[in-house]
Design brief:
With 313 residues, this protein is mainly alpha-helical. It has 13 helices and two strands. Strands 1-2 form a two-stranded antiparallel sheet.
Amino acid sequence: MKKSFVFAPLLGVILLGAILLLGTGCSSDKPAAPGDAAATLPEPTVPASPAPAPAAADAVHLPLDPYVRLAAGRQDTLTKAGDILTAKCMRGKGFDYVSGDNPGGSAKDVAPLPDYGVNDLKQARESGYTPPGSGTLQSLAEQGGKVPTLDDAVQKHGAAWVKALYGFAPPETNGTGGCFEASIPPVPEYDKLDKELAGRLAGQAADRTRGDSRVVAVTAAWSGCMGESGFQYKSPLEPRQQKWPTPRSSTEIATAVADVMCKQHTNLPGIWLAVESGYQQALLDQNAPALNQLRDAWQLVIKQAEQVIANGG
């Protein structure tokens, strides 16, 4: 049976001919490890009745966001610079390349959902836990789109073109030397820094938040509210992580609606954000010099990208 190689969208930004992965604050259900900077932090002081959280994910702002999402708002610059460098490299190998030829697409500025998940009643009613247009392969398939594959690129451009671009072509599954690895002089001020620091700290804050006494209590209240509606979940992470069928079912929609209504009833998102903001601010204060150095060096990366664009590569 012939295999079809799906080329997933890039998980970082293509810049300076490389795939630059920024820390994103990945979180898990595990408590903070003893060695984590957040493990010894006291529970932060928060208002007794925190303000409700914004419904839209892109309206949620946490103290570490400017450091975690350094590329936010500059994706067009980064993508354009990456396209110029890729096209230059491909020309050197005897191939044409234009923006959009990459079957995986470019990274986009998308605000991640907070750990407590969906908080928008309109979104819950319309699309459950997977909002349309989120840029994932799953959402593309749900909307009737064709998931791009490397086989498609081979049929359109030929195996030699694909290998020049990625360093491999089906039936190979990996390789090096592709034009996505093309580079220009590095930015030492940025390359020498701990690029994952902000993401690590955000992840530690998220871990502590889930175990915070205020969050544990409001999560139990949310769980009780969901039970009254006929849905048995211990935390808002569970329905969000559940594998829902495609296309969306009435059960998913009903669950998401009850989820958001119970969040509104208990103010789980408001309490969650207040607590997580407290942990993040404490970690930011502890690590401000290193974080500010990373932010300042990132500006040099942006400047380098702008120079690539101005000079045409």
